Amino acid sequence: MKNPLLKFALLTLATALSLAAAPKKVLVVTVTTGFRHSSIPTAEKILTQLADESGGKFTVEFIHQPAGEPKKPAAPRPGKDGDKAPAHLAALEKYKADQKAYEAALAQWMPTVVAALKPLAPANLKNYDAVLFASTTGDDLPLPDKQGLVDWVNGGGVFIGIHAATDTLKTFMPYVSMIGGSFKTHGPQVSVDCINEDHAHSAVKMLPATWTVYDEIYQFKNFERSTVHGLLKIDRLMVNADDVKAKKATQGDFPVSWCKQMGKGRVFYTSLGHRDDVWDPAATEGGKRMNAPELSKLYQQHVAGGILWALSLAPGDAKPQMMK
């Protein structure tokens, strides 16, 4: 080609098209130092499936739980003979020895967790478009740089949280502010009617005005509705076992899913996803399902829509409804 300007323009266009077509890279973290959800393997499977079904829009890479996590011993409870009974005192002595062994094993295991989480270092995050915490837990989750992750999102990165992502780093307020709230408690698993707050948003446009789900429903602290764009909420909830027994719901504002703008970055969070049969239309718990397979398919679309929105690949508002 004799015209150098035309050649340069075509090369620039080809490069731009190539970059536009490149899939976004999502780094999925399922490491826990607190409670570990049994649904995590199902979540990993479905997130891989959603990436495969995205038509090349995004890929997933995982930071899995390192092998060898020691099991914490359970403290013995007094029997009918009370806490001074010889059998209970012997069980306490065994527990003390088991606890000491557990602490030693934990000290040996934690460096493997630190090593596994190294890809979250700020210098490495530039290689990814989004970070997704899927039921991570632990106030002491040893990220290489907690503030660095928040700063990366604020500077244009993407953070996606699923279920127990709000039960993570609850004492590190910059993270809590970024994700939008922190786990406070939950009652027994119940059927709830989730209210769709934005029928035009890609994360919930596939859902009806009221979406009934059976799951573990989180109650939050440090949540400020004025800072998020609500996607799903509940206006009444059986918050404890007594409420469930009496079939009496507490009225209130119980957020379930939201999104927000974080500086130049984006954040999407859904608290649903405790149960395997929420994630997977073929999964059972105890040999039965509490959610129809059709619900699991909708949940997958909810998560995929949230991911695509966070990656700026699907439409949706992020402005808090209270500010409109």
CATH architecture: 3-Layer(aba) Sandwich
Tally the beta strands: 11
Name of the top-level CATH class: Alpha Beta
CATH homologous superfamily designation:
Class I glutamine amidotransferase (GATase) domain
Rg over CA atoms, rounded to whole Å, is: 23 Å
Poorly predicted ranges: 14-18
The helix count comes to: 9
Whole-number total of structural domains: 1
Biggest sheet layout: 9 strands, mixed
| Mean pLDDT reading | 94
What spatial form do the alpha-carbon principal axes imply?
Answer: globular
Helix content: 25-40%
Approximate strand percentage: 15-25%
Structural class: alpha/beta
Q: Per CATH, what is the topology?
A: Rossmann fold
What is the CA-CA span between the terminal residues? 54 Å
Q: Which sequence of SSEs, written as H and E, runs from N to C?
A: HEHEHHEHEHEEEEEHEEHH
Sequence of strands across the biggest β-sheet: 2-1-3-4-11-10-9-6-7
